[in-house]
Amino acid sequence: MLYEKWNYVLAIAEEQNLTRAAKRLFISQPALTLYLNRLEKELGVKLFDRSRTPILLTEAGKYYVEQMKKISASEQALRSEIRMIADPAKTLVISIGQVRGHHWLPLFLPAFCFIHPDVNIQVIQGREASMGQALRSGQVDVLIGSHSAALSDLEVVELSHEQLFFAAHKQFGLIPPACRSQYGIRSPYRISPERLDGLPFITSQVSNDLYSSYESIILANQIRPSRTISVSNLYTGFKLAAQGLGVQLLAGSLLQLGEEADTMEETMDFCVLEDMPQTRKCVAIYSKDSIKKQLILDVIQAIKDQVLPRCILDIPCEGPDLP
């Protein structure tokens, strides 16, 4: 009874009205009331305060809903794992960074799912630097991102050259005011390392591959940050940079431009150093003997068709057509 039809409780909590919840569930209001009465009797607590309008969850009810959501999520994960064990060729595990996944998945997954409507998909976001071993062990089928680890035993498909640049609030004055109209996110201003020395920085965590680019640039140019804020989500870091909390190294494809571009350029300066890599490669990596090779190639093609044309700061890699 605790788990059976628990979505009835969720509907009541969201609608805050038994009649509306019953209509949403396509059952009668008396039947829904009877279910709720039975459940509360079995639990020995009131899940809802029905003496008021709208009806609201009690503290016990809030805890019940919170825990049942976790149980439901665990059940879905278990179902997915069982299907994976039963037919591993019908489940594709994709590893992609948090921010890249946030922007890219809604663009390429619909195209992939249209081609393969019966394939289960498991997405792992984050931990770019630690996913190489997971790929080799078969826990992951394809990695999408910028990876600097040794990859000679794996198949690597180059997707694009991502532009690198520093973003900082205009309060730091990295671009002279008289020049600002000529420079922006699509045309960063060139500065000397001395302009960045002693400023606060916002960095990705060591597990993110962008951190190695940041570290090599900082060390090579003898830049000494006054303070660093380390974040696991680069887009969160960018929001902090927009508040003037530090300078951040970014890759162009990690920003969703579109309508945000003008807003970003109103408050932010975008710069590059003379002596720094101007781009980094974004790649898709998979095992050479993967039994899911065709599925992986279809993911890569969907990225090339649906994502890369929208990454206006990056240069797609030229390469042979996929088989």
Radius of gyration: 25 Å
| Dominant shape | globular
What percent of residues adopt helix (DSSP H or I)?
25-40%
Number of helices: 10
| Ends apart, CA distance between termini | 52 Å
- Briefly note the structural class of the backbone: alpha/beta
Low-confidence stretches: none
Overall mean pLDDT: 84
Characterize the largest beta sheet: strand count, sense, and whether it forms a barrel: 11 strands, mixed
The strand count comes to 13
The topology string of helices and strands comes to HHHEEHEHEHEEEEHEHEHEEHE
Q: DSSP strand (E) fraction?
A: 15-25%
Which key phrases capture this entry?
single chain, 323 residues, alpha/beta, two-stranded antiparallel ribbon, 10 helices, globular
Describe the structure.
This protein is α/β, with parallel strands linked by helices. 39% of the residues lie in helices and 22% in strands. Strand 8 (200-204), helix 7 and strand 9 (227-231) form a beta-alpha-beta unit. It is globular.
Q: TL;DR?
A:
This protein is α/β, with parallel strands linked by helices and 323 residues long.
Spell out the blueprint of helices and strands.
Blueprint: H1 6-15, H2 18-25, H3 29-43, E1 48-49, E2 56-57, H4 59-86, E3 91-96, H5 98-115, E4 120-125, H6 132-136, E5 142-145, E6 154-169, E7 189-191, E8 200-204, H7 210-220, E9 227-231, H8 234-242, E10 247-251, H9 260-267, E11 268-273, E12 279-287, H10 293-306, E13 315-316
Helix pairs in contact: 1-2, 2-3, 5-10
